[in-house]
Amino acid sequence: MNIHKINLLFLLEYNSIRLKEVFHNIWFVNLILIIVACSTNERKKKPDFQTSVKQISLVPVNTIQLEIDAETSVNNYFYDVFSVDTVEYLGIINRNKNALQVYSLASNKLYREITLEKQGPDAFSQLRAFTFINQDSILLFSLYAKDIWLIDMNGKIKARYDFRNISGERPFSLGIVFYSGLKPIFSNGKVYLRTQSKLVDNLTAAHFNEDNKLELKLDLRSESWEYVDISFPELYRNNIWSSDISRTLTNDGKIVYSFGICPYLVLYDLASKTQIKYPAQSKYVVKVMPLVNKSEAERYFFETPKYGIIAYDKYRNLYYRFVKHHLTITDPVSGQMNQYDDASFSIVVLDGEFNKIGETKFKPSTYKMNEFFIAKDGLYISASNTKNPIVNEDMITFEIFKPAI
Protein backbone atom coordinates (compact mmCIF):
# COMPACT_ATOMS: atom_id res chain seq x y z
CA MET A 1 0.00 0.00 0.00
CA ASN A 2 1.18 3.47 -0.86
CA ILE A 3 2.90 5.12 2.15
CA HIS A 4 0.85 8.27 1.60
CA LYS A 5 -2.39 6.28 1.81
CA ILE A 6 -1.22 4.61 5.03
CA ASN A 7 -0.40 8.00 6.58
CA LEU A 8 -3.73 9.37 5.43
CA LEU A 9 -5.64 6.45 6.98
CA PHE A 10 -3.62 6.82 10.17
CA LEU A 11 -4.39 10.51 10.37
CA LEU A 12 -8.10 9.94 9.76
CA GLU A 13 -8.23 7.24 12.45
CA TYR A 14 -6.18 9.35 14.86
CA ASN A 15 -8.36 12.44 14.30
CA SER A 16 -11.50 10.35 14.74
CA ILE A 17 -10.21 9.10 18.08
CA ARG A 18 -9.25 12.63 19.10
CA LEU A 19 -12.66 13.96 18.11
CA LYS A 20 -14.32 11.25 20.19
CA GLU A 21 -12.12 12.19 23.15
CA VAL A 22 -12.92 15.87 22.68
CA PHE A 23 -16.66 15.22 22.49
CA HIS A 24 -16.42 12.92 25.52
CA ASN A 25 -14.54 15.59 27.50
CA ILE A 26 -17.05 18.28 26.50
CA TRP A 27 -19.92 15.99 27.55
CA PHE A 28 -18.19 15.20 30.85
CA VAL A 29 -17.49 18.88 31.63
CA ASN A 30 -21.12 19.80 30.84
CA LEU A 31 -22.33 16.99 33.09
CA ILE A 32 -20.19 18.28 35.95
CA LEU A 33 -21.49 21.83 35.40
CA ILE A 34 -25.10 20.62 35.45
CA ILE A 35 -24.54 18.66 38.66
CA VAL A 36 -22.83 21.63 40.33
CA ALA A 37 -25.59 23.99 39.19
CA CYS A 38 -28.33 21.69 40.47
CA SER A 39 -26.49 21.23 43.73
CA THR A 40 -26.13 25.00 44.08
CA ASN A 41 -29.82 25.53 43.37
CA GLU A 42 -30.74 22.88 45.90
CA ARG A 43 -28.59 24.60 48.52
CA LYS A 44 -30.21 27.93 47.76
CA LYS A 45 -33.71 26.45 48.06
CA LYS A 46 -32.95 24.47 51.18
CA PRO A 47 -34.99 26.01 54.04
CA ASP A 48 -33.73 26.37 57.59
CA PHE A 49 -33.66 23.09 59.54
CA GLN A 50 -34.76 20.94 56.61
CA THR A 51 -33.08 17.55 56.68
CA SER A 52 -33.73 14.25 54.96
CA VAL A 53 -32.13 12.25 57.75
CA LYS A 54 -33.40 13.53 61.08
CA GLN A 55 -36.61 15.18 62.23
CA ILE A 56 -36.97 18.47 64.09
CA SER A 57 -38.17 18.52 67.71
CA LEU A 58 -39.22 21.45 69.86
CA VAL A 59 -37.15 21.35 73.02
CA PRO A 60 -37.53 23.47 76.18
CA VAL A 61 -34.68 25.95 76.65
CA ASN A 62 -35.89 28.38 79.31
CA THR A 63 -38.78 29.64 81.44
CA ILE A 64 -39.83 33.23 82.09
CA GLN A 65 -42.33 34.74 84.50
CA LEU A 66 -44.15 38.05 84.14
CA GLU A 67 -45.26 39.66 87.40
CA ILE A 68 -48.92 40.73 87.35
CA ASP A 69 -51.22 42.72 89.63
CA ALA A 70 -54.48 41.65 91.26
CA GLU A 71 -56.58 42.81 88.27
CA THR A 72 -54.58 40.80 85.76
CA SER A 73 -55.36 37.16 85.07
CA VAL A 74 -52.80 34.46 84.39
CA ASN A 75 -55.12 33.42 81.56
CA ASN A 76 -55.18 35.88 78.68
CA TYR A 77 -56.52 35.20 75.22
CA PHE A 78 -54.45 37.61 73.17
CA TYR A 79 -50.66 37.98 73.08
CA ASP A 80 -48.53 39.55 70.36
CA VAL A 81 -44.90 40.61 70.04
CA PHE A 82 -43.50 43.73 68.41
CA SER A 83 -40.16 45.56 68.34
CA VAL A 84 -39.18 49.19 68.89
CA ASP A 85 -35.54 50.12 68.19
CA THR A 86 -34.51 46.43 68.32
CA VAL A 87 -36.13 45.98 71.77
CA GLU A 88 -38.82 43.29 71.89
CA TYR A 89 -42.10 43.94 73.66
CA LEU A 90 -45.02 41.68 74.48
CA GLY A 91 -48.50 43.15 74.24
CA ILE A 92 -51.26 41.58 76.35
CA ILE A 93 -54.96 42.37 76.14
CA ASN A 94 -56.15 42.67 79.75
CA ARG A 95 -59.93 42.21 79.58
CA ASN A 96 -60.43 42.96 83.27
CA LYS A 97 -58.84 46.40 82.92
CA ASN A 98 -59.88 47.03 79.32
CA ALA A 99 -56.21 47.76 78.72
CA LEU A 100 -53.26 47.00 76.50
CA GLN A 101 -50.36 46.03 78.73
CA VAL A 102 -46.86 46.17 77.27
CA TYR A 103 -44.04 44.12 78.81
CA SER A 104 -40.35 44.39 77.94
CA LEU A 105 -39.00 40.96 77.04
CA ALA A 106 -35.52 42.21 77.94
CA SER A 107 -36.48 42.73 81.58
CA ASN A 108 -39.78 40.78 81.82
CA LYS A 109 -41.23 43.90 83.48
CA LEU A 110 -44.32 45.94 82.72
CA TYR A 111 -43.22 48.79 80.46
CA ARG A 112 -46.49 50.57 79.76
CA GLU A 113 -50.23 50.21 80.23
CA ILE A 114 -52.77 51.86 77.94
CA THR A 115 -56.16 51.81 79.66
CA LEU A 116 -59.26 52.67 77.65
CA GLU A 117 -62.40 54.37 78.93
CA LYS A 118 -65.47 52.17 79.30
CA GLN A 119 -67.97 55.04 79.29
CA GLY A 120 -68.22 58.56 77.89
CA PRO A 121 -67.38 60.15 74.51
CA ASP A 122 -63.99 58.43 74.34
CA ALA A 123 -65.30 55.05 75.43
CA PHE A 124 -63.80 51.96 73.82
CA SER A 125 -65.49 49.05 75.55
CA GLN A 126 -64.52 45.38 75.44
CA LEU A 127 -61.03 45.62 73.98
CA ARG A 128 -60.15 42.30 72.35
CA ALA A 129 -57.13 42.71 70.05
CA PHE A 130 -54.44 45.04 68.75
CA THR A 131 -52.09 45.27 65.78
CA PHE A 132 -48.80 47.13 66.13
CA ILE A 133 -47.77 48.95 62.94
CA ASN A 134 -45.27 51.38 64.49
CA GLN A 135 -44.98 53.59 67.59
CA ASP A 136 -47.38 56.11 66.08
CA SER A 137 -49.86 53.58 64.73
CA ILE A 138 -51.48 50.86 66.81
CA LEU A 139 -54.85 49.45 65.74
CA LEU A 140 -57.32 48.50 68.47
CA PHE A 141 -60.25 46.14 67.97
CA SER A 142 -63.29 45.76 70.23
CA LEU A 143 -65.55 42.72 70.62
CA TYR A 144 -66.69 41.63 67.12
CA ALA A 145 -64.61 44.57 65.76
CA LYS A 146 -67.55 46.93 66.22
CA ASP A 147 -65.02 49.63 67.08
CA ILE A 148 -61.66 49.97 65.36
CA TRP A 149 -59.39 52.81 66.43
CA LEU A 150 -55.89 53.97 65.65
CA ILE A 151 -53.79 55.18 68.60
CA ASP A 152 -50.13 55.85 69.29
CA MET A 153 -47.86 54.35 71.93
CA ASN A 154 -49.04 56.97 74.45
CA GLY A 155 -52.69 56.07 73.96
CA LYS A 156 -53.55 59.20 71.96
CA ILE A 157 -56.51 58.60 69.63
CA LYS A 158 -55.53 59.30 66.00
CA ALA A 159 -58.47 57.84 64.06
CA ARG A 160 -61.85 56.17 64.57
CA TYR A 161 -62.84 54.11 61.57
CA ASP A 162 -66.30 53.74 60.07
CA PHE A 163 -66.09 51.08 57.38
CA ARG A 164 -68.75 50.93 54.67
CA ASN A 165 -69.07 48.87 51.50
CA ILE A 166 -70.17 50.21 48.09
CA SER A 167 -73.80 49.99 49.25
CA GLY A 168 -73.06 52.04 52.36
CA GLU A 169 -73.45 49.05 54.69
CA ARG A 170 -71.27 48.33 57.69
CA PRO A 171 -69.64 44.88 57.77
CA PHE A 172 -71.48 41.96 59.34
CA SER A 173 -69.36 41.33 62.41
CA LEU A 174 -70.94 38.47 64.34
CA GLY A 175 -68.35 35.94 63.19
CA ILE A 176 -65.33 38.11 64.07
CA VAL A 177 -63.37 36.64 66.98
CA PHE A 178 -59.86 37.20 68.31
CA TYR A 179 -57.28 35.17 70.20
CA SER A 180 -53.53 34.58 69.89
CA GLY A 181 -54.06 32.10 67.07
CA LEU A 182 -56.53 34.31 65.23
CA LYS A 183 -55.10 37.81 65.08
CA PRO A 184 -55.98 40.69 62.78
CA ILE A 185 -53.63 40.58 59.79
CA PHE A 186 -52.19 43.87 58.53
CA SER A 187 -50.70 43.96 55.02
CA ASN A 188 -50.25 46.79 52.50
CA GLY A 189 -52.68 49.16 54.16
CA LYS A 190 -55.35 46.46 54.49
CA VAL A 191 -56.60 44.63 57.58
CA TYR A 192 -57.90 41.08 57.34
CA LEU A 193 -60.31 39.67 59.93
CA ARG A 194 -61.70 36.16 60.23
CA THR A 195 -65.49 36.39 59.91
CA GLN A 196 -68.52 34.79 58.28
CA SER A 197 -70.65 36.38 55.58
CA LYS A 198 -73.88 34.47 56.29
CA LEU A 199 -76.11 34.66 59.35
CA VAL A 200 -76.54 30.90 59.67
CA ASP A 201 -76.46 28.50 62.62
CA ASN A 202 -73.04 26.84 62.90
CA LEU A 203 -74.86 23.61 63.81
CA THR A 204 -76.24 23.35 60.28
CA ALA A 205 -74.56 22.14 57.11
CA ALA A 206 -75.36 25.52 55.50
CA HIS A 207 -72.72 27.13 57.70
CA PHE A 208 -70.05 25.19 55.81
CA ASN A 209 -71.27 26.00 52.30
CA GLU A 210 -69.04 27.66 49.75
CA ASP A 211 -71.07 30.90 49.76
CA ASN A 212 -70.22 31.58 53.42
CA LYS A 213 -67.04 33.66 53.10
CA LEU A 214 -64.62 33.58 56.02
CA GLU A 215 -62.33 36.59 55.61
CA LEU A 216 -63.07 40.31 55.70
CA LYS A 217 -60.76 42.86 54.05
CA LEU A 218 -60.78 46.41 55.44
CA ASP A 219 -59.10 49.24 53.54
CA LEU A 220 -57.78 51.75 56.08
CA ARG A 221 -57.35 54.52 53.50
CA SER A 222 -60.81 54.44 51.92
CA GLU A 223 -62.59 52.94 54.98
CA SER A 224 -64.21 50.44 52.62
CA TRP A 225 -64.60 46.68 53.00
CA GLU A 226 -65.28 43.50 51.09
CA TYR A 227 -65.16 39.75 51.60
CA VAL A 228 -62.18 37.68 50.53
CA ASP A 229 -63.06 34.65 48.41
CA ILE A 230 -62.14 32.02 50.97
CA SER A 231 -64.60 29.52 52.48
CA PHE A 232 -64.60 26.13 54.17
CA PRO A 233 -62.95 23.49 51.93
CA GLU A 234 -64.96 20.88 50.06
CA LEU A 235 -64.27 18.38 52.83
CA TYR A 236 -66.82 20.22 55.02
CA ARG A 237 -69.81 19.96 52.68
CA ASN A 238 -73.08 18.31 53.80
CA ASN A 239 -72.00 17.71 57.39
CA ILE A 240 -71.58 19.55 60.70
CA TRP A 241 -68.12 20.08 62.14
CA SER A 242 -66.10 22.21 64.50
CA SER A 243 -65.68 25.69 62.97
CA ASP A 244 -62.09 26.15 64.18
CA ILE A 245 -59.92 28.19 61.83
CA SER A 246 -56.50 29.74 62.29
CA ARG A 247 -54.39 31.61 59.77
CA THR A 248 -51.23 33.64 59.53
CA LEU A 249 -49.40 35.84 57.07
CA THR A 250 -46.47 34.34 55.16
CA ASN A 251 -43.21 36.16 54.57
CA ASP A 252 -44.28 36.94 50.98
CA GLY A 253 -47.70 38.39 51.79
CA LYS A 254 -49.95 35.34 51.35
CA ILE A 255 -52.32 33.93 53.98
CA VAL A 256 -52.03 30.31 55.07
CA TYR A 257 -55.11 28.71 56.67
CA SER A 258 -55.37 25.82 59.10
CA PHE A 259 -58.90 24.38 59.07
CA GLY A 260 -59.86 22.28 62.08
CA ILE A 261 -60.65 19.03 60.25
CA CYS A 262 -58.22 19.25 57.32
CA PRO A 263 -54.99 17.22 57.18
CA TYR A 264 -53.59 19.93 54.93
CA LEU A 265 -52.96 23.68 54.95
CA VAL A 266 -54.47 26.06 52.41
CA LEU A 267 -52.23 28.82 51.03
CA TYR A 268 -54.26 31.73 49.64
CA ASP A 269 -52.67 34.23 47.26
CA LEU A 270 -54.34 37.61 47.84
CA ALA A 271 -53.14 38.94 44.48
CA SER A 272 -54.15 36.07 42.18
CA LYS A 273 -56.99 34.79 44.44
CA THR A 274 -55.75 31.23 44.00
CA GLN A 275 -55.30 28.42 46.52
CA ILE A 276 -52.72 25.68 47.00
CA LYS A 277 -53.01 22.78 49.46
CA TYR A 278 -50.01 21.45 51.40
CA PRO A 279 -50.11 18.18 53.39
CA ALA A 280 -49.66 18.85 57.12
CA GLN A 281 -51.20 15.87 58.88
CA SER A 282 -50.49 14.97 62.48
CA LYS A 283 -49.47 11.42 63.29
CA TYR A 284 -51.83 11.64 66.28
CA VAL A 285 -54.98 12.38 64.23
CA VAL A 286 -56.09 9.74 61.74
CA LYS A 287 -59.38 11.32 60.70
CA VAL A 288 -61.77 13.86 62.20
CA MET A 289 -65.40 12.72 62.19
CA PRO A 290 -68.47 14.99 61.81
CA LEU A 291 -71.14 15.65 64.42
CA VAL A 292 -73.99 13.18 63.94
CA ASN A 293 -76.36 13.98 66.81
CA LYS A 294 -76.86 17.66 67.72
CA SER A 295 -77.81 16.69 71.27
CA GLU A 296 -74.20 15.49 71.66
CA ALA A 297 -72.71 18.78 70.40
CA GLU A 298 -71.05 19.74 73.70
CA ARG A 299 -69.36 16.36 74.03
CA TYR A 300 -68.39 16.36 70.35
CA PHE A 301 -66.69 19.78 70.44
CA PHE A 302 -64.85 18.91 73.65
CA GLU A 303 -63.66 15.40 72.84
CA THR A 304 -62.97 15.51 69.10
CA PRO A 305 -59.33 16.01 68.11
CA LYS A 306 -58.74 18.94 65.79
CA TYR A 307 -56.17 21.10 64.07
CA GLY A 308 -55.78 24.49 65.70
CA ILE A 309 -53.28 27.33 65.52
CA ILE A 310 -51.01 27.91 62.57
CA ALA A 311 -48.18 30.35 63.43
CA TYR A 312 -45.21 31.62 61.45
CA ASP A 313 -41.79 31.89 63.08
CA LYS A 314 -40.09 34.64 61.06
CA TYR A 315 -36.85 34.25 63.00
CA ARG A 316 -36.36 30.64 61.91
CA ASN A 317 -38.54 30.51 58.76
CA LEU A 318 -40.75 27.79 60.21
CA TYR A 319 -44.47 27.17 60.64
CA TYR A 320 -46.03 25.61 63.74
CA ARG A 321 -49.38 23.81 63.48
CA PHE A 322 -50.96 23.06 66.86
CA VAL A 323 -53.03 19.87 67.16
CA LYS A 324 -55.44 19.13 70.02
CA HIS A 325 -55.66 15.42 70.82
CA HIS A 326 -58.65 13.39 71.91
CA LEU A 327 -59.82 13.97 75.51
CA THR A 328 -62.86 12.48 77.22
CA ILE A 329 -65.24 14.97 78.83
CA THR A 330 -64.86 13.22 82.20
CA ASP A 331 -61.75 11.70 83.73
CA PRO A 332 -62.19 7.88 83.63
CA VAL A 333 -60.36 7.47 86.95
CA SER A 334 -61.67 10.31 89.12
CA GLY A 335 -64.98 10.81 87.35
CA GLN A 336 -64.43 14.58 87.44
CA MET A 337 -64.97 16.89 84.49
CA ASN A 338 -61.88 17.54 82.43
CA GLN A 339 -60.88 21.03 81.33
CA TYR A 340 -59.97 21.96 77.76
CA ASP A 341 -56.27 22.28 78.57
CA ASP A 342 -56.16 18.86 80.20
CA ALA A 343 -55.76 17.50 76.69
CA SER A 344 -52.37 16.56 75.35
CA PHE A 345 -51.43 18.31 72.14
CA SER A 346 -48.71 18.30 69.56
CA ILE A 347 -47.12 20.82 67.23
CA VAL A 348 -46.38 19.91 63.63
CA VAL A 349 -43.27 21.76 62.40
CA LEU A 350 -43.07 22.74 58.74
CA ASP A 351 -40.27 24.47 56.89
CA GLY A 352 -40.64 27.64 54.83
CA GLU A 353 -41.92 25.65 51.85
CA PHE A 354 -44.52 23.77 53.96
CA ASN A 355 -42.67 20.47 54.12
CA LYS A 356 -43.38 18.62 57.35
CA ILE A 357 -40.08 18.22 59.19
CA GLY A 358 -41.19 17.13 62.65
CA GLU A 359 -43.87 16.88 65.31
CA THR A 360 -43.52 17.26 69.08
CA LYS A 361 -46.04 16.03 71.65
CA PHE A 362 -46.67 18.05 74.83
CA LYS A 363 -47.76 16.76 78.21
CA PRO A 364 -51.43 17.04 79.24
CA SER A 365 -52.58 19.33 82.07
CA THR A 366 -49.38 21.39 81.85
CA TYR A 367 -49.81 24.18 79.28
CA LYS A 368 -52.41 26.55 77.85
CA MET A 369 -52.17 25.51 74.23
CA ASN A 370 -53.89 28.62 72.78
CA GLU A 371 -51.82 31.10 74.80
CA PHE A 372 -48.51 31.56 73.03
CA PHE A 373 -46.29 33.98 71.15
CA ILE A 374 -43.11 33.85 69.08
CA ALA A 375 -40.03 36.00 69.71
CA LYS A 376 -36.30 35.91 68.93
CA ASP A 377 -35.63 33.45 71.75
CA GLY A 378 -38.18 30.92 70.53
CA LEU A 379 -41.76 29.75 70.85
CA TYR A 380 -43.30 30.81 74.18
CA ILE A 381 -46.19 28.64 75.47
CA SER A 382 -48.08 29.50 78.63
CA ALA A 383 -47.40 27.05 81.46
CA SER A 384 -50.02 28.71 83.69
CA ASN A 385 -52.26 25.66 83.65
CA THR A 386 -54.09 25.33 86.99
CA LYS A 387 -52.95 21.70 87.22
CA ASN A 388 -49.31 22.54 86.58
CA PRO A 389 -47.36 22.29 89.88
CA ILE A 390 -45.29 25.36 89.01
CA VAL A 391 -48.29 27.65 88.48
CA ASN A 392 -48.16 30.93 90.41
CA GLU A 393 -51.22 33.19 90.45
CA ASP A 394 -49.01 36.25 90.80
CA MET A 395 -47.08 35.42 87.65
CA ILE A 396 -47.74 34.50 84.05
CA THR A 397 -45.35 31.65 83.30
CA PHE A 398 -44.10 30.82 79.81
CA GLU A 399 -41.89 27.94 78.79
CA ILE A 400 -39.66 28.70 75.80
CA PHE A 401 -39.12 26.08 73.07
CA LYS A 402 -36.65 26.02 70.20
CA PRO A 403 -36.37 23.68 67.22
CA ALA A 404 -33.50 21.22 67.38
CA ILE A 405 -32.35 18.20 65.39
How does this model look, in words?
Strand 6 and strand 7 form a beta hairpin. This protein is mostly beta strands and about 400 residues long. The strands form six sheets. The protein has a four-stranded antiparallel beta sheet, with no helix packed on it. The protein has helices at about 5-45, 295-305, and strands at about 55-65, 80-85, 85-95, 100-105, 110-115, 125-135, 135-140, 150, 155-160, 185, 190-195, 215-220, 225-230, 245-250, 255-260, 265-270, 275-280, 305-315, 320-325, 345-350, 355-360, 370-375, 380, 395-405. The radius of gyration is 28 Å and the shape is globular. It is about 10% helix and about 40% strand. The relative contact order is 0.13.
Keywords:
405 residues; mainly beta; four-stranded antiparallel sheet; 12% helix; disordered N terminus
Oligomer: single chain
Relative helix content: 10-25%
Name the structural class: mainly beta
Q: Name the overall outline.
A: globular
Number of helices: 2
What is the chain-wise order of helices and strands?
Answer: HEEEEEEEEEEEEEEEEEHEEEEEEE
* Mean of residue pLDDT values: 88
Largest sheet: 4 strands, antiparallel
Radius of gyration: 28 Å
